[in-house]
Amino acid sequence: MSKAEAFRALHHGRPPGAPLILPGPWDAASARALAAAGFPALATPSAGVAASLGYADGHTPAEEMFAAVARIARAVDVPVSADVEDGYGLAPKELAERLLEAGAVGCNLEDSSGGALKDPRRHADWLAEFRSAAGGELFLNARVDTFVLGVTDPDRVIERAALYVAAGADCVYPIEAPTALLPLLRSGVQGPLNMYARLDGAGPSPAELGELGATRVTFGPGLLRRALRAVHEVVHEVVQEVPA
Question: Is the dihedral of CA 91, 133, 169, 27 positive or negative?
Fold first, then answer.
């Protein structure tokens, strides 16, 4: 079984309350630490990788993002999915080729660009071309950005999700969807459903999201932010110990 097939299999047959948890490494070192902790797969966050490279989220050059993904994928033996934002303007075939060259087994693709939602049917056609070019070797997580951009009608999410699943998406990610809507989204979306979990205790736990219908849980750049807070705390302690 290929890594892509193994990764796809992780999304199916999961019992309620036990979603697939995909932590987000931002570099090779963090990827190795997460793999050593026993996670069966990893999913890079674009914001986390951007921060590690010195860029604001959404401003990482494509070349640097693919190079970072390649370093992460080479560093571990578990499958790695990559957040490649809106595809960087690449044609579907080229995007698939670049991801496969980097060693990724899947990707996260947004349905907005420049702060505006894409036409869902045109985006679905684009996803279908990407899926065909990947030949089943890339797990496609189709992000739905309606809630991010202020469109709060869940029917709009479900309509977009249906188009993307029909186009070949393996999973749908309604980012920032309110937890209260998760049962409704679960009933209206076919196939695996990705939800975002916060790491500051302000939202439901991964297990609770799983009970409500999430198939998999990601944290965005949450792990990097926690790690940076730990670095600040350690540095503060060290500075306090240095004589004036």
Answer: negative
> Please, are residues 170 and 137 in contact by the beta-carbon 8 Å criterion?
no
The whole-angstrom distance between residue 87's C-alpha and the CA centroid of its chain comes to: 13
Q: Write the pLDDT tens digit of every residue in 16-50.
A: 899 999 999 999 999 999 999 999 999 999 999 99
Closest to 217 (Cα-Cα) out of 150, 141, 151: 141
pLDDT in tens, 194-214: 999 998 888 899 999 999 999
Residues 45 and 48: their CA atoms lie apart, in Å, by 5
Q: Which of 57, 58, 143, 127 is nearest to 95 (CA)?
A: 127
User: Of 67, 64, 69, whose CA–CA distance to 42 is shortest?
Assistant: 69
Alpha-carbon span 48 to 119, nearest angstrom: 28
